[in-house]
Write a structure and sequence with these properties.
about 475 residues, single chain, globular, mainly alpha, 19 helices
Length: about 475
Amino acid sequence: MIAALVLIPILAAIACLLIRDSRRLGAILIATATIHLILTGLCWAFEPGGLWQGWLALDEAGKLFLTIVSVLFAGSALYLQEYFRREADSPHESESVFIACLLFFLATMTLVTVSRHFSLLWVAIEATTLASAPLIYFHRSPGSLEATWKYLLICSVGIALALLGTFLLAAAGTAAPTPVELSVADLTIHARELDPAWLKAAFLFLLVGYGTKMGLAPMHSWLPDAHSEAPSAVSALLSGALLNCAFLGIFRTLQVCTAAGIDKFAGDILIAFGLISMGFAAIFLLRQVDYKRMLAYSSVEHMGILTLGIGLGGLGSFAGLLHAVNHSLTKAALFLLAGNIIFAYRSKSIESVSGLFGRIPATAILWAAGFFAIVGSPPFGTFVSELTILRAALQQGHGWIAATYLGLLSLALIGMAGAVLKMLYGPSSSQGPLPENRLSLITPLIFAVLVLALGLMIPSGLSRTLASAAALIGGTAP
């Protein structure tokens, strides 16, 4: 089953390179997304066995992030059916190449979620960069070319640092009486035998390396450009799925640190990076003029929030993982809706967009709901996860962290509110509403409903998975 999850998208991608008919390409994309989603569902019903002596396997954390990837990809695939029709007259990458790269991207992200060996995990995360770079250049504009090169350059530096961190992790194992493999299982079993100094150095390099790909400040500079220039469905996957894959690399490293008893050292650094990322994002959100870049900086903020959560540990780990789910669904919905707004107004400038309720009312309603969700308003799931992180900080006596956290959340709210309210309620430049295609609304609607449902009740199965995943890094359930 694990092999099928990775191989089917690869085979479908190869097939797409040989096809030029748009209908067939769209059908392959939908079929592959559907099969991947079904196989992911089967992983919840049945426990898939490991492959390659445990190099490929699914634990609760992998299962959680695999599900996020699969759900977001299926929704994006549905949205793209209408998107290509809209883009028929504009210069862009050929559909066959684009869909092939999109399917390779799915395969590489899937490989990240099922990798249980640090060497393979590094290869998989690097592969996500190579597979997704052509997707950012889809429109073939100077801006998209610059964003693609910045993405490749900065993330390549980050992945090089992560490779050095992997070498340092191997060096930490030389202190053990018997050779320690770089598998997550072997490292956690023999964690107490690892050299603490080498392990701490490995954690720092892996955090900075994978943190660059995750969009943690101050290594985040590629993210606003890439998310802004990529097609909306790709932006949804970059923000909602790819950032989680990089986070999983940090999560695996934290697993080893927790087993080795240096989780306090790692947690303090994670808290610092979390608050710094929230601070950077809040500053840029206050004076943002491009609504896709606004959503990108919001992603930097939310990566900081979940990093802060797992850094706090205990209840914060559970809340951080829950926040990863809530943020992925919410941000994917907002980026897809941003695509509808771009189509209606032909601009990404906040100043050029006003009167959404009068021009595209259905998109406007969902855009407003997405705004309330992304800033953590009740009754959405983001409110629950953000409140639980605050609760974890207060329970541990970190009053200054709680106060800083609330202050930065407030600044981000103020920055986004001014832009969103202007877009929703400003004077409309049209005589009446424009027709809106249902396919462009179905996916954002489903994601919004899911986030709302998670704010009202967390399903027992998801709660158990979150608790089990949090326990891997010393976390506890509410």
